[in-house]
Amino acid sequence: MGFYAGIDLHTRKSVVCVIDQKERKLVTATAPNGLPSILRLLKKAPRRPAVAVEATWTGRFEEGKSMPEELTKGGSRREMALKAVGRVRSAIKDPILRADGRSLELQEDLEEARRRAQDVADTVAEIEVYPEMADLLDGIEDFSHLLVLYWAHLVPEEGRSLLKVHPIGRKEFPLTGIFATCSPARPNPVLVNAVRLLAREGNILRVSGLEAVDGTPLVDIKPYVPMYFKVEDARLSDWMNRIIRGFVEG
């Protein structure tokens, strides 16, 4: 048997469950306050099961339901640990998009959002890499632009359960799968910006064009290399082209 935790998409609540890995069946599922009943079930098992396999699964839990093979084998859906390597210091204090368990919402009207987009382009932010990791930056001054990966820490747990959103929270755009959008509300809210490197001062990078809000945890930095990342013939969806024309370009 395996002991798992996840989100029931039907109820939008966190659940814990016991899985019969041999039969690939869900034995029981319950809310966290029902944990004692699960522990009692495990104690009744003929042999002490291998439990506490750290894994998550998102789906609708139904007793007796067949489970995905990769989950029952405890393989590709195990949790991973990310370690912050620094943080962002910025005049931008609040995200322009907010998510809950139901939807993604634009926090300002479209005209104000356009102004915010321009402010982001003009804002000089600081990326503080933790001092003990400062050597990671050696040689970075040779590059004019960087890719900055960061964790959207203000997205609540329930916002990370969304499967589809209206892009930038606007209902005139079609309901679209999260992986087909740049939404901050994602199962793993890792976001990326291409920024201009203005200066390095020890473990501090001064950059422009970073959308991350003040205090955002830093995940990684890579040099921007056009040969690797630039695509000349990229095709965009109709709604994305509308956003670029109307939202970004005004």
Unreliable parts: 33-61
| CATH evolutionary superfamily of the largest domain | YaeB-like
SSE-based structural type: alpha+beta
The radius of gyration computed from the alpha-carbon positions, rounded to a whole number of angstroms, is: 22 Å
In whole angstroms, the N-to-C terminal distance is 56 Å
Question: Helix segment count?
Answer: 5
Q: Using the coordinates above, name the CATH class of the largest domain.
A: Mainly Beta
What labels would you give this structure?
4-stranded mixed β-sheet; 30% strand; 14 strands; 250 residues; alpha+beta; globular; 5 helices; single chain; 2 domains; Elongation Factor Tu (Ef-tu), domain 3
Describe the structure concisely for a colleague.
16% of the residues lie in helices and 30% in strands. The chain contains five helices and 14 strands. The strands form four sheets. It has a six-stranded antiparallel beta barrel with strand order 5-8-13-12-9-14.
Commentary on this structure:
With 250 residues, this protein is α+β, with helices and mostly antiparallel strands. It folds into 2 domains: 2-72; 86-248, YaeB-like (Elongation Factor Tu (Ef-tu), domain 3), CATH 2.40.30.70. The chain is built from 5 helices and 14 strands. A 6-stranded antiparallel barrel has the order 5-8-13-12-9-14. Strand 2 and strand 3 form a beta hairpin. It is globular, with a radius of gyration of 22 Å.
Blueprint of the fold:
Elements: E1 2-8, E2 13-20, E3 25-30, H1 35-43, E4 56-59, H2 69-72, E5 86-89, E6 97-99, E7 104-106, H3 110-122, E8 124-129, E9 145-151, E10 164-165, E11 176-177, E12 190-201, E13 204-208, E14 217-223, H4 226-229, H5 238-248
